[in-house]
Amino acid sequence: MKKFGKTLFLLLVVAAMTGCVKQTIHMDINKNGDVTMTAINATQNGTTSDSDKEELEKLGYKVEDYEEDDLTGIKFSKTYKLSEISSKESKQVDLTTVGTEEFDKQLSFQKKGNTYKANFIFDTTLSDDYDESYASYASDMEISYSVTLPNKPKSHNADTVSEDGKTLTWNVKYGEKKVINYEFKLGSDILKYVLIGGAIVVIAVVIVVVVKKNKKQNPTGMNNAMAYATPMPAVPNQGMPQTPVMPEPTAPVSPEPVAPITPEPVAPVTPEPLQNPEPMNATDTPVTEETSTTPEENVSQNSNQNE
After folding, report:
1. 3-state helix, strand, coil in the chain (%, to 5)
2. Pairwise CA distance, residues 243 & 104, whole Å
3. Where are the domains of the chain?
4. How far apart are CA 217 and CA 85, in angstroms?
5. The pTM is what?
6. Residue 146: count of CB within 10 angstroms of its CB
7. What is the pLDDT of residues 194-242, one digit of tens each?
8. For residue 302, what pLDDT band results from cuts at 50, 70 and 90?
């Protein structure tokens, strides 16, 4: 079963000896995450057998006959979920194993956020024995891989791109290992912007609610801090009791203590002793102090003497 894909490809190579061969693989990745893989194996002489069809149907492929011009073969398809075949790791997928159980196990896209990256390889070398034998028939073989994306890729190494930029095609030559890489986004960044915008709206609503709640609890708000610094004329609220504004209490001022003034001691004054007067002689005439009299006293004295 694991070698069925390689064997199927080998049969196509052998068929190329007698005519043209067509092997194409196309993936259609939708916006809903569905990945529909469709492969066509056809030759001029129709090398596909009924047993091949049965093997594909057992693996869940939808199989139908294919005819185009002088080519006949089979067309088989299968739909995968991108979410089921994606991982954080990068795995290389060999597209020559399409139609096998091995392919279903290894099919994978690397996922980072909403970005997906494909790392495929189309190995048509098979073995050294076949390379030399069938290299001359390479021009008669049409081998390709293509993918249609939901939007333009972020990066790719495709050989050709459609006009809308969504379909990429890699043309493969027999005997080479074709490396296929592309990266795309599923979905847009609108959802991210919507989530960011919603978060901003929620934060704004919370801020408004908190501010209104604070205003109800403290109507004056931040102006209270300026009430004492800048006096404002009071505007009475009609119909509402006025709340008197109480001045801030001030601490009492205690007078500084004054040191008592102590008078300087005064030295006592000692009177000088009086000297004894000298004794008077008999001949000395006592000195009588003269007294002054007023004119009135003189008239009175004269009157007394006349009487």
Report:
1. 30, 25, 45
2. 82
3. 4-188, 191-219
4. 58
5. 0.57
6. 20
7. 778 788 888 988 888 888 777 777 665 455 555 445 555 555 555 555 5
8. low
